[in-house]
Amino acid sequence: MRSRAPIYEALLKYRAENNTLLHMPGHVGGRGFTIEELRTMGTLDFTEVPGLDDLHSPSGPIQEARELMAQAFGARESFFLVNGATSGIQAVFLAVAGEGEPVLVPRNAHRSFYAGLVLSGAMPVYYSGRLMRPWGLVLAVEPEDIAAAMEQCSDAVAVFLVSPTYYGTTADVGEIVRLMAAYGKMVLVDEAHGAHFGFHPRLPAPALLQGAAAVVHGMHKSLPVMTQGAALHIGPGFKPVVRLRNAYHLLTTTSPSYPLLASMDLARCLMVEEGTERLESVLHLADRYRAKIRVIPGLECPGEEMLQAAGVKGYDPLKVLVRVTGLSLTGYQTADLLREQYRIQVEMAGEDFILAMFSPGHQEEDWGGFYHALRDISYRYVGTAPGKRLAVPVPPYPRVEITPRQAYFSPMRRMHLSEVAGQLSAEMVTSYPPGIPCLLPGELITSEMIDYLYSLRASGCRVQGPDDPSLEYLYVIDNAAD
Ligand SMILES: Cc1ncc(COP(=O)(O)O)c(C=O)c1O
Q1: pTM to 2 decimal places
Q2: 47-100 pLDDT, tens digit each
Q3: Are 326 and 383 in contact (CB under 8 A)?
Q4: Cα 7 from chain centroid?
């Protein structure tokens, strides 16, 4: 290792210098565990003792690691997150928006946005990404759609973006930043799936380097980092820095996991030293195997053509989307088959696709195994099945009546779906695909929305969120209880 990994080095030093550990955690440097594997894992799981710094008031190895992290990602300041990208998104909401203040928010956001809205009390003004109709996926937003949303709501305090999407497609962040600069608004980006972007020129340009004011990375998603490891970076354009620091302290545990912090420290070090080289070889594998998968009968494996979809500026070749439209299987069945018969677990499945995630940690045999399994499945199941549902219903535009926070604290009651017209929803309803909430707490349930919910029920889509996933009943806000 040529460059430094200060947190990891401090842990090694602490372990070498201290024998009797009369402090937390209770497993005493791994010795208290009864299982060998845990004992090994526990040997670097210390806590905030002298020499190991303090995440909330860093001045030693954690501070040094934060500075190295900021340098590596081109940030003015970086924060280690130990509760995933979720806590970074929540902190940004708490920093930029207060009670009732409007913020522009993408409808296809992760559920952590909803938590950010409840915590901050902000009023969401939703804009929609462009639905890629034949695939039923939202791949990006057009800058002009955000500009139009801003025209409608010029008092919005900031704009949130999700880029890349789960499918690895990115929006034109630079253009959105440029457009929003004319309104004096900050652009805040959930780049949870793009922590590796800055380390290879063939990957989409990182949002921070395109002028985003704040960016959240789920480092554990695409880098060799333990689950929950994430980072929040701010650029020169981020204004409420003190409020962000306060929000970070409010939301972050006082007992951060040191193995988690060290894994981020080491991953940053690895990517700075060898990231480009490692990405180069995995991108080469991605090119080779995407080309091979594309010619398997019954499958599509889009690459460069994704750049033709509305709003899409870039794509991550390590997200391998395989459409199974020419098989007599749904995407869910294909994923089950891969798991049960080939011992391959993919990241996600939809009605007519599967999504596999690759990283520099994968070897050629992982790509080869995936390819051979797909080829075998194609041989067995090529040909479409009658009645296979490919069209995805599109939800009506939401009508937000009260803030998610007001809705969260309101009393609620259960009603039959046939009776909920005119009520405000107390529940989140998300259908898969496309995995975007169609109804959120505080939104008016119009007759159009009821028709849509009935069509969801009839389509057999998977529904997540409501207490009754069969959608027979829905919780609504109980105005009579006031
Ligand atoms: C786009 C996006 N943003 C944020 C998150 C939250 O990340 P985490 O699970 O690290 O909290 C996810 C999780 O899957 C995500 O896909």
Answers
A1: 0.94
A2: 999 999 999 999 999 999 999 999 999 999 999 999 999 999 999 999 999 999
A3: yes
A4: 26
Spatial separation of the C-alpha atoms in residues 281 and 288, rounded to whole Å = 11
Q: Which two tokens stand for residue 34?
A: 């009864």
What is the domain extent for residue 333?
Answer: 278-381
Q: Say if residue 482's pLDDT is above 70.
A: no
Task: Determine the Cα–Cα distance for residues 145 and 126; give it in Å rounded to an integer.
Answer: 11
When pLDDT is cut at 50, 70 and 90, the band that residue 461 belongs to is confident
* 437 CA from centroid of ligand 1 (Å): 15
Ligand 1 pocket member 121 (CB < 6 A): no
Q: Which of 143, 141, 148, 136 is nearest to 106 (CA)?
A: 141
Determine the number of helices (DSSP H) and then strands (DSSP E) in the chain. Answer: 14, 19
Does residue 219 fall inside a structural domain?
A: yes
371 neighbors 292 (Cβ within 8 angstroms) = yes
The best mutation among 82, 138, 190, 430 to test binding of ligand 1, ranked by most ligand atoms within 8 Å of the C-beta, falls on 190
Same domain, residue pair 290 and 265 = no
Rounded to whole angstroms, the Cα distance separating 21 from 46 reads: 9
Q: Which two tokens stand for residue 77?
A: 């300041």
Q: How far apart are CA 402 and CA 244, in angstroms?
A: 25
296 within a domain of the structure (yes/no) = yes
268 token code pair: 């940053």
DSSP string, 318-359: TEEEEE-TTBSS-HHHHHHHHHHHH----SEE-SSEEEEE--
C-alpha of residue 260 to centroid of ligand 1, in Å: 17
Q: Is the CB of 189 under 6 A from ligand 1?
A: no
Å from CA of 110 to ligand 1 middle: 6
CA pair distance 195, 222, nearest whole angstrom: 6
Cβ(224)–Cβ(267) below 8 Å:
yes
192 Cα–ligand 1 center, Å: 6
In this structure, the answer to whether residues 101 and 200 fall within a common structural domain is yes
Q: What is the CATH number of the domain that holds 418?
A: 3.90.100.10
Query: What is the helix, strand, coil percentage profile of the chain, to 5?
Result: 40, 20, 45
Residues 6+ apart with CB under 8 A from 142: 130, 310, 311
- Say if residue 242 is in the same domain as residue 302: no
101 located within any domain: yes
Ligand 1 centroid to residue 164 C-alpha, Å = 11
Dump strand ranges (E) for 219-330: 230-234, 314-315, 319-323
Q: How many domains in the chain?
A: 3
Closest residue by Cα to atom 14, ligand 1, is 110
Tokens of 267: 């991953």
Domain boundary among 270, 290, 323: 270
How many other C-beta atoms are found inside a 10 Å radius of the C-beta of residue 121? 18
